């Protein structure tokens, strides 16, 4: 994870964080929804923040720990997106679009964290 410019997961998580910020602004301004949107903002931006920390990790174990935290944050973000959709704060199209990005991050992070678990077990 040395070259940050070509780091797919770092770039995807940053773009996703920006989408979460924009969704937060929309929900506050257009829907007057402040509680769930704040939770989404925190967890959605935390994914990339933890990945970025992992890039500068002090050790391999620290790297994996940060990415596993990012995985937990991505899972929480998925939950808030589902709640916002199921309570009609966001449309089906908007949900499916942003949730697809969240699912992609979940898959990437799951793969990385699973690899670490296998490494520890062997």
How is this structure best described in words?
The protein has four helices and no strands. With 122 residues, it is mainly alpha-helical. It starts with 7 loop residues before the first helix and ends with a helix.
SSE order and pairing:
Blueprint: H1 8-31, H2 35-55, H3 60-86, H4 92-121
Helix pairs in contact: 1-2, 1-4, 2-3, 3-4
Compact description:
The protein is mainly alpha-helical. The chain has helices at residues 8-31, 35-55, 60-86, 92-121.
Summary tags:
single chain; mainly alpha; 122 residues
Q: How would a crystallographer describe the biggest sheet?
A: none
Strand runs, count: 0
What is the number of helices? 4
Strand percent estimate: under 5%
What class, by secondary structure content? mainly alpha
Helicity range of the residues? over 70%
Order of helices and strands: HHHH
Radius of gyration of CA atoms, rounded to a whole number: 15 Å
The overall pLDDT average reads 93
List the uncertain runs: none
Distance linking N and C termini: 23 Å
- Coarse morphology: elongated
């Amino acid at each position: 994870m040395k070259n940050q410019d070509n780091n797919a997961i770092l770039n995807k998580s940053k773009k996703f964080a920006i989408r979460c910020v924009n969704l937060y602004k929309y929900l506050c301004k257009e829907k007057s929804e402040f509680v769930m949107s704040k939770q989404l903002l925190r967890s959605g931006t935390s994914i990339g923040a933890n990945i970025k920390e992992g890039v500068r990790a002090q050790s391999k174990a620290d790297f994996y720990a940060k990415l596993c935290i990012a995985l937990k944050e991505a899972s929480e973000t998925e939950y808030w997106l589902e709640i916002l959709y199921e309570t009609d704060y966001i449309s089906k199209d908007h949900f499916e679009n942003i949730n697809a990005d969240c699912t992609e991050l979940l898959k990437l992070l799951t793969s990385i964290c699973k690899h670490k678990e296998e490494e520890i077990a062997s």
